[in-house]
Amino acid sequence: MRIDDFLRHDSEWLKGTGPNSDIVMSSRTRLARNIDKLAFSHWADKKQQETILTAALDAAESVNYLKDALFIRLKDLSEVDRAFLVERHLISLEHAKDVEFKALIVDPKEIISIMVNEEDHLRMQVLQSGFNLMEAWRIIDALDTELSKKLSFAYFVKWGYLTACPTNTGTGLRGSIMLHLPALVFTGQISKILQATAKLGLNIRGLYGEGTEASGNLFQVSNQVSLGRTEEDIIDNIERIINQIIAREEATRRNLLAKNRDALVDRVWRAYGTLKSAHIITSNETIALLSAIRLGVDLGVVKNLDRRMVNELLILTQPAHLQKLEGKVLNSNERDMKRAELIRERLK
Questions:
Q1: Which domain does 160 fall in, by range?
Q2: 219 and 177 in a common domain
Q3: pTM
């Protein structure tokens, strides 16, 4: 299996299936772990970083969940390939930098991935389509148990698992939900929702996590700290708050259909018309227009498309994906033309 093979199937987080998948695009659990008696990645010297890398890869090879996994040294990849992995949510923006002693372990279905030598020695991640946070937790908990039989993780009885960033100390668990909230954005309610969510102990980030802004009405919501709570408590708190946001978005969508249907339909079909006819289009504009169409699909306004196709366009039109599909490096203008061409072909 090679990286290029990922182009032939959908990312798990974009399948458009699972509970509440019209609003919740994906659920993710992530565990931060460090190997005992070795310096954290940012402080480790070259010999230690190589030791971490070797130990992680050796341990992963014995784990049942990863028996068919792809083991990738990031230094062996091109810049486009690394950006491709970021776009598929398999590595972070941080992990794509300074790649000499970094690696990725990923299963063929892109459900499980492990970043080696990111901020922590291991950043394990499980992705599920739709509102499936508890299932994502069940899988990553089993993965963690298997890995802990091969690796001794840094742990202190008083504090829990020790991590490079204090906000991850404790369980090391970060649960996150990718939400599509166009109705709350259209009606100007989103700011109050996000402010209230932050006060309840959750972080709100953009499509690609930390350091990115929301685009396409997509918001990534996750817990701020993992210390002093059990994993089940963290998951339960996230689910409780997300259910409230889902309910608000659903009510707002119903209200738009009842009271502003003409304006909503016009917005959706204007977006569809632009995408179907444009010959040059940027990534940001594409995401915004696809968000409107996705809402139209979910509300039954657009009947000749399905959610999965819209989600597929969301990722295939990203810069690195376009270059992988074309088989060569493209400048910004070439990408904008290729993106428009791809969209026109898919919307025929």
A1: 3-253
A2: yes
A3: 0.91
The DSSP H or E segment spanning 45 is: none
Largest CA distance in the chain: 65
Are 105 and 69 in contact by the 8 Å Cβ rule? The answer is: yes
Q: Rounded to whole angstroms, how far apart are CA atoms 203 and 190?
A: 14
- Same-domain pairing of 229 and 265: no
The region, left, alpha or beta by phi > 0 then psi within -120 to 50, assigned to residue 60 is: alpha
As given in the structure block, the two tokens for residue 178 are 């990718």
Residues 49 and 100 in one domain: yes
Query: Is residue 9 scored above 90 in pLDDT?
Result: no
| Pairing verdict, β 70-73 and 173-180 | unpaired
Which of 266, 338, 335, 323 lies closest to 296, judged by CA? 266
Give the count of alpha carbons within 13 A of 168, CB side only.
22
For residue range 58-117, list pLDDT tens digits in order. 999 989 889 889 999 999 999 999 999 999 999 999 999 999 999 999 999 999 999 999
- Both tokens of 322, joined, read 């376009």
d(CA 75, CA 19): 38
> What are the helix (H) ranges across the chain?
46-60, 79-87, 133-148, 182-186, 190-199, 231-259, 261-277, 283-298, 307-316, 319-326, 332-346
Cβ neighbors of 295 (< 8 A, separation 6 or more) are 180, 182, 183, 253, 264, 268, 301
